[in-house]
Amino acid sequence: MDSAEKINGYIQSAIDMEDSFTRGVYTICMERKNWPANIDEETFLEIKSLLKTLVNDSANHKEIFLGLKKRVNEK
């Protein structure tokens, strides 16, 4: 395995982790039914807003990793 393949593997692992968090943890936690009934709506909406920030951050991270992967493969 050459250096580019190894780096591509690391980058792909990072992309997969970002996707996993977004599809799993963040998405599950954004659904009201997955929270205790006694959490008031205002608190839930605040949590959901913070989670949206994390989802957006993950999307940005993925784009960075994809750009890095492209640069590695251009060389």
Describe this protein's structure:
The chain has 75 residues and is mainly alpha-helical. It has helices spanning 3-29, 41-74. The protein has one domain (3-74). It has two helices and no strands. Helix 1 (3-29) runs antiparallel to helix 2. The longest helix is centred in the C-terminal third of the chain and has 34 residues, at 41-74. 3% of the residues are buried. The mean pLDDT is 92.
Please give a handful of descriptors for the protein shown.
2 helices, single chain, mainly alpha
Task: Show the helix and strand layout.
Elements: H1 3-29, H2 41-74
Helix pairs in contact: 1-2
Briefly characterize the structure:
This protein has 2 helices and no strands.
CA-based gyration radius: 17 Å
Whole-number count of domains: 1
Strand content: under 5%
Shape: elongated
The poorly predicted ranges are none
The number of helical runs is: 2
Helix content: over 70%
Quaternary: single chain
Averaged pLDDT, please?
92
Largest beta sheet, briefly?
none
Q: Ends: how far apart?
A: 16 Å
Class from secondary-structure proportions: mainly alpha
Per DSSP E runs of 2 or more residues, the count of β-strands stands at 0
